[in-house]
Design a protein that fits this description.
Layout: E1 4-15, E2 18-27, E3 33-42, H1 45-53, E4 55-56, E5 59-60, E6 65-66, E7 70-78, E8 90-93, E9 96-97, H2 103-106, E10 117-118, E11 135-139, E12 143-145, H3 152-155, H4 158-171, E13 179-182, H5 186-198, E14 203-207, H6 210-219, E15 223-226, E16 236-241, H7 249-254, E17 256-264, H8 277-282, E18 286-289, H9 296-306, H10 309-314, E19 315-320, H11 324-332, E20 339-343
Parallel strand pairs: 13-14, 13-16, 14-15, 16-17, 17-18, 19-20
Antiparallel strand pairs: 1-2, 1-6, 3-7, 3-11, 3-20, 4-5, 7-8, 8-12, 9-10
Helix pairs in contact: 4-5, 4-9, 5-6
């Protein structure tokens, strides 16, 4: 075990609607570990679910936990056995630490590891503390040096972009295809960006709000539709259901052309979800789940370096960590915000 040497500010969720800026201990880096001075962190939908509902799906808060898993910063110190990570080096932190031993890990499906530790997750006890803190110690395998030209602020978007890239991989070859992205929040917008880079043909984004659709257009959507006023009924070769609203699934199925691919990215709330299976069978649809990511993290960093318009178009707000109340209020307001960042190092 690493010795505790100091404390740091951290954003801790204690219960539903009970978020506090606390002082927490910082462990010195042990063998194979790195201490990172966190500079930037992005608020994710799961962070908002912990705040509003005390959990995300089956991951229910049972003890105080530090939030945050979209983070970047600078190496503070490296423990014994760590090579290639020098103090002061700009890095991004991969939030997952799979076990490497379970059947999924042995099959190369590390993102589906049944024992994985994911930053800012209450899936297991003890909970896995996240990265909304000024200093944190993690396994060196989770720390990625930034490619040339990538700003440390933009680098915290590698995590959500990795989710988008994994979903696109699940869809198969998207080049020249007609694609619908249902739900234009940050993940949906990043899927649009990934589709543009990958060479998709028509990219249609739908949402119930105008502001996220304006972000989707920045990311490369060729058409946007506000379905609060007019339903979208056109069929597409590939559909990404990103809203996570159970009531939106029949629409996604209906918009998937016969023989097409429907990728489920949005996480549904707990409980059973009604699915019109008859349509999936009769239309011979390929319904694929998409969960987190693995090696896409490095690719995401490279894309953020090569295409700075991704970060420039997605990020709408920045707040110091002490202004966490304002930051979450902004993030929860889909009429005026997309990706909200914490300037943790400022």
């Amino acid at each position: 075990m690493s010795d505790i040497i100091r404390t740091t500010d951290a954003l801790v969720i204690h219960d539903r609607e009970d978020l506090r800026l606390d002082r927490v201990p910082v462990a010195a880096p042990g063998r194979g570990e790195v201490t990172v001075r966190v500079a930037w962190g992005g608020i994710c939908g799961s962070d908002m679910h912990y705040l509003k509902h005390g959990g995300v799906g089956a991951s229910v808060l049972r003890a105080p936990m530090i939030l945050g898993h979209e983070i970047s910063g600078f190496v503070e110190a490296a423990g014994p056995g760590v090579h290639g990570l020098a103090p002061g080096e700009a890095v991004a932190v991969h939030p997952a630490r799979p076990c490497g031993e379970c059947p999924e890990c042995r099959r190369g499906l590390r993102h589906l590891c049944r024992e994985t530790r994911f930053l800012g997750s209450a899936a297991m006890l003890p909970h896995t503390d996240g990265g909304f803190r000024r200093l944190m110690t993690v396994a060196a395998s989770q720390v990625y040096p930034l490619p040339p030209g990538l700003d440390v602020r933009a680098a915290c978007l590698a995590e959500p972009l990795s989710v988008a890239l994994h979903a696109i991989i699940r869809a198969g070859d998207v080049r020249g295809r007609s694609v619908l992205v249902q739900g234009a929040g940050p993940i949906g917008a990043l899927i649009v960006a990934g589709l543009k880079i990958a060479g998709a043909g028509e990219i249609v984004a739908t949402d119930l709000q105008d502001f996220p659709l304006s972000i989707a257009r920045r990311m490369g959507a060729t058409t946007t539709v506000n379905t609060a006023s007019a339903p979208h009924v056109a069929e597409h070769d590939i559909v990404f259901e990103v809203s996570g609203a159970a009531g939106a699934l029949p629409t996604a199925i209906g918009c998937t052309a016969k023989g097409g691919v429907l990728v489920q990215v949005g996480m549904f709330p707990p409980g059973d979800v009604g699915i019109p299976l008859g349509q999936i069978i009769a239309r011979e649809l390929d319904y694929r789940g998409s969960f987190r990511f693995d090696t896409e993290f490095g690719t995401a960093l490279d894309l953020l370096a090569a295409y700075p318009w991704i970060a420039e178009g997605l990020v709408t707000h920045r707040f110091p960590l002490a202004a966490f109340g304002e930051a979450f209020t902004a993030s929860l307001d889909r009429r005026h915000s997309s990706k909200v960042l914490f300037d943790i190092g400022g």
